[in-house]
C-alpha cells in the first residue's frame, strides 16, 4: 500500500489523468452503446416460467407490452354519444402513433367487459410492437399526451393511463436525488474539516469512481441480465461508501500533517494505514454482494456484479486517485486556522477530547445498562420484520398524483381489484381429450372461490396451445390472490386434468412474483449463512480473534433485522408512506431481502472494521482491553459519526428518486447505517467488549499457527503482537505503564525505541493517555 501511495504521489498528474481518461472513455462508450436493461423476474423451471414460455411459443403476436387507457365520466356515462365520439377519435389517433401494434376499444363491438356495470368507466387496451424495456420514452410520452388531450375536466371526463411503458414517463428527470445527497455530504465535510479543498476531495473521488461504475453498468447490460434499477443502486451504494472511504483517509492525512509530517509522508502514511482498512472494508462489501451469485438467479447476478463493480472502483479511487489529489492541494487540507496554529505552535498530537472522550468513558463505566438499552432498541425496531410479506408491488402503490395510480384506482373501482392483475392460464394440447377438458375448465373456474370472472378459451392458429384469463376478486398484491394461485395449482386444475395429458400452467404477475419469492425464501438461509461465514472468516484472519467475528455477525444480523422492521412499517404497513410521496402500503418486493442483506451486511462490516481496527492497534501495543476499547471508541467515534451522517444523507436523498424500489433501498440503508453507527458501534459493541474483557482477543494457539496473516494495522503494531507471542523482531515496543487520573491531559507513555517522526517530541507521540481519556 505504501509503495502504491508513493507512486501515485510522485506521479500525481499521471494518476489523475488516468482516472479522468477512464471516466471519459467508459462514459463515451456507454453513450454510444446505449442501455440494455432487463427486468426479467422469471425463474426457469417454475410454473409461471413454463406458462410464459408456452405463451411466447404459441402466441408470438402477444409478445409486445400492453398498456391501458382508462376514462371516467361523471355525467351521463361513457356510452353518451359525445363521450363515445370523443374517445373513439382519440383511440384512432393512438392507433396511428409509431410503435403501436393494436388498440382494443370498448366501442363498436369491442371486447366484452371493457365498460363497467354502472357505465361510468371504460378502458381500452393498447399493445406495443416491443416489450417495455425496448420502448423509447418518446413513444410512451406520445401515447400519454394524445390520450390526455381527450380529457374534458369541465364536463367531468377524466382520462388516465396505466402500464409499464406509461410508467417510463413518470420517472423523474435528471439526477435530483444524487445532487441533494452530494450537496448535504459536502456541507457535512466542510463542517468537519473547515477546509474547502479537503471537503471537496472525498466528493471528487466518489463522483469520478461512481461515474465510471455507472457507465460500466450500462455496458454490462449488453453482456448479462441487469435490472433497470441496478445503476441507481450502484450509485446509491457507491456515493455512500466512496465518500466515507475517502473521508477516513483524508482524516488520517490531516492528522499526519498536524503531527509535523510532510504532505507526501502524511498521504503515504494515510494510505498505508487507513487505506488498508478501506481495502479490507471494501472487500467485505464485495463478498457480501457477490454472495448473491450462489442463488443462481440471472436477475440477481447482474445486480451483484454491478454493485460490486462500483465498490471496487470506489476503493481503487480512494487509494490511488485520492492521494494524488492530496499531494496537489498540499497544506490546504488543513483549515486556515489549523495552518496558522501549526506555524505558531508547531506540530501537536490531535487529542480526542470533548464529547467523544466523555462518551467513551461513560460507556466504560456503565456497560451493562447501556448494552441492555441498545439491545432493547434494536429488538423493538426489528419486531415488524416478523410480519414481512413478499409479493407484488404494482402501480397501485405509486404516489396518488401519478396517472398510473389514478388509472389503477379507476379500474379497481369500476371493474373490481382483480382486473389490475389477472392470472393467465396457458396449456399445451395433445389430442381431442385435452381440448374437451379445457373447454369445460371455464365453468369450473367460475365456481371457484376467489374468482371474479373467466374469459373464454383462446386457441392459437395450430390448435396446440390455448390461453384463458382468470380475474381474481382481490388485488394482485393481496394474500387472497396468492392463495387463489395455490388453490388453482393444488386442487382445481389437477381435478380438471385428471384422465388426460392436459397440463395447465398458471402464470401472470402475481403467480410470477409468488414463484420468484418462493425460490428466494428457499435459498435465503443458505445465502445468509454463506455471507456470515465469509465475513467472519475475514474478520478472524484480520483480528486473530474468535469473539470479534461472532460479535460482528450478531451486530450485522441485528442491523439488518431492525432495518427490515423499519421498511415493513413504512412500505408494508404504510406508516407515513403517502406523506413521504412513496405511494400506498403494499408488499415488499421478493428480491429486496437478498439485495438488502448483501448491501447491509457489507456496510455494517465497514464500521466494525474501522472501529475494531483502532482498538486492535491499541490492544497490540498495550495488552489492556479496557484501554483499547476506550481509546478506539474515543478516536474513531467522531469520524464514524461524521461518516454515518454523510452516508445517511446520501441514502435518504434517494427517496426523492420517485422509484419505490430505490426508495426502499434508501430508507433501509439509511436506517441500518444510523442504527449501526449510533447504537451498535458506539454503544452495544464497546459495552460488550468491556464486559468480555480479554476474551475479546482470544484465539487458540493451534488455530493461530494455521491461519494465514492478513494485516490491516500498522506494521509496528504487528511487531508488538509478535513480541508478546515470542516472535523475534528488530524493534519491539515495550509499553510503559503510567497511572493517569480521569480526563488528565499529560504526555503519553512512549514505547521504547519507538520511531517518532521529527520534529515531534517523543513525549507527544500520539499514543496512550495523551488523548485525555480516563485510564
What does this entry look like structurally?
The chain is α+β, with helices and mostly antiparallel strands. It folds into six domains: 1-34 and 174-349, Up-down Bundle (Multidrug efflux transporter AcrB transmembrane fold), CATH 1.20.1640.10; 56-170, Alpha-Beta Plaits; 351-387 and 544-699, Multidrug efflux transporter AcrB transmembrane domain (Multidrug efflux transporter AcrB transmembrane fold); 403-514, 2-Layer Sandwich (Alpha-Beta Plaits); 702-733, no CATH class; 736-775, no CATH class. The chain is built from 24 helices and nine strands. It has helices at residues 2-10, 12-33, 47-58, 81-95, 137-148, 164-167, 176-193, 196-220, 230-258, 263-290, 298-329, 336-345, 355-365, 367-382, 403-415, 432-446, 479-497, 509-543, 547-572, 592-622, 625-653, 660-692, 701-706, 715-724, and strands at residues 66-73, 100-104, 121-128, 157-163, 423-428, 451-454, 458-459, 465-472, 503-508. Strands 5, 6, 7, 8 and 9 form a five-stranded antiparallel sheet that branches. Strands 2-3-1-4 form a four-stranded antiparallel sheet, sandwiched between helices. Strand 7 and strand 8 (465-472) form a beta hairpin. Helix 1 packs across helix 2 (12-33) and helix 7 runs parallel beside helix 9. The two termini are 34 Å apart.
* Counted beta strands: 9
Uncertain residue segments: 716-775
Q: Which CATH first-tier class of the largest domain would you pick?
A: Mainly Alpha
CATH H-level homologous superfamily name of the largest domain: Multidrug efflux transporter AcrB transmembrane domain
**Structural class of the secondary elements?**
alpha+beta
Indicate the proportion of strand residues: 5-15%
Give the N-to-C terminal Cα separation: 34 Å
User: Helix segment count?
Assistant: 24
The structural domain count equals 6
Indicate the radius of gyration in whole angstroms: 31 Å
CATH topology (fold) name of the largest domain: Multidrug efflux transporter AcrB transmembrane fold
Give me the CATH architecture of the largest domain, please: Up-down Bundle
Largest β sheet strand count, sense and barrel closure: 5 strands, antiparallel
Please, what is the average pLDDT? 81
Shape, please? elongated
Helix content: 55-70%
